[in-house]
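Protocol step 6 of 9: fold each sequence in the batch and record its structure tokens directly after the sequence line. For illustration, a two-sequence batch is reproduced in full.

Sequence one:
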Amino acid sequence: MEIALYLKEKVRAMLRQGRNDILIEVNKISSEESRRLRENSTDFRRGDIIDRSMPLNAKLSLAEHYCLVIRQYDEALARLERDEYGICEKCYDNIPLGRLKQVPFTKYCLKCQTSIELKEKQLRYIPPIHLPFSFEKEKRRAMI
């Protein structure tokens, strides 16, 4: 029993550290962008604003992804408290330790995760539309 408690504490510490590492990255992005915006707030030429917004959008997208990962760490910590950590939510088998080391907040074993991703990919797939005529032929006709 003491070993189980010790391992639970080690996993809890690992999950909290992973969560904190991601939170530090989010804070870096936020503070860098706030500083950059303060420094450049007097320059409102349209081209500059557009050029600066591209990296900002990319950084905001990254920060959004990091927030999702933080939420996944929080969910993993909650599963740990309920003694459900390391158990696949789909097939209820134990998730291999190697997978938990690679993706500590995972909810699924590799087999179930692959199955879920394949179904999602199939739902996103849009088959090509075959039109009864070619646009190239229509362009040629318009040129005549």
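Sequence two, same batch, same settings:
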Amino acid sequence: MNSHNVFYTSGIVFLLTFPRVQQCIKTFNWYYSLFSMGKTTSIMSHIFRTNTHRTIVMFAVLLLITMSQGQLSLQPMALPTAHGDKLSLDYFEEQITWLMKLAHMPSLSICLIKKDAIVYTHCFGYANLRKKTLATEETLYLAGSISKVVTATALMQLYEQGRFNLDDDINTYLPFNLRNPSYPDTPITIRMLLAHQSSLGNKEILPFIFLSLLNVSNEFLQEFFTSQGKFYTPGIWRNVPPGEEAYYSSVGYDVLGYLIEQLTNQSYETYCHDHIFTPLNMHNTSSQLTNLTKNNLATPYLWLLGHYIPLPNYEIDNLCAAAGGLQTTANDLSHLMIVHMNNGTYNNIHLLNKETIDLMHRIQYPGSEKHNIRRYGLGWCIGPTLPDGTHLEGHEGAVPGGNSYMLYSSSEAVGVIYLTNQYSYIVKPMELLSWIGLRNRLFLKADTIFRV
């Protein structure tokens, strides 16, 4: 062993003599088991196997992060050694509660799915902290961009009816001209909008949300997208030809919501209610507060400067409903998830053809994800990948006061949904790590449920 290794090892052993450091290591052991999906139970086994500077820096930085979070009053749970302990429901729910505290989630609603059935559902924490209102299966959460799955599903119903072709120019159906001014001769197709390939950006989303809160109708879209419009800014477009690069765009889905209204002569909300929510028994789902039970609404929170800041219950309707206005329960959302996991069918209700579902879940523009970690189908994200190599797909959502995940593994036919009532756009490292750990732990739990 050379002098550098002796110094490194001696330093680690010296650190381990401090109780506070020992507690940190226990915490990291627990985190590490989540991120490695159970493959490695101790970060120390990795530390002592590796002598790279990268590992030294990783250990030091993670140690400092943990010690700076003020979370050490939470006693880290010892990792289970017996196989039966790993399958313990109490142990699993204790882990979830611990992760919630680290991620500052006032409440959390979980639903695990296998094929076409719910196999586990549970609610944690408080829908309203001041009133100590416990979260229940009826608690409603802001689902954010999971709304895009609803929008895409609605459009693909109309596609099956022959109302349009995916590669049609969107201008065929709009009362205004939608063109990137830098590429005026390149049509923007419906497929491009569904797959985030339209060359529309996402930087101007805040004005859309603000006007949506004022219930501005979709007819105002032309004021944003056309150069003569009152609210037009060049930054709404990216300087790339439509169809060349994937770039996530919520405003593109606002256009698709308007397309649904143009094709059906119904409001977006009415169409989704009649053709998706009602057939799927999603009776606690809407983008309009008037259609929801007020007492079931989770209070949205921001976590800022060490405090939960409550927001009033709000709706993102009309202008932005198709991109991020959905409010729902984990149980309701599971019905839509099952449609996408079960070839277009839920509880013998046929919503879409299998071929259409396969098309939605297929990458539309391979190799175009220059600015994105994930690739896109039609209203569907392909990615991320779990540490054990399991590929996930589905959608996530985040709006002020609400964060949501609807993901599944097609290879395992396992789906996970979780909703919470806190999101502030200012995410600390420990919160991000906790979200990743939560996702991994839920899929690990789902796997153990189905193997037992």
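Proceed to step 7 once all outputs are recorded. Observation for sequence two: The radius of gyration is 23 Å.
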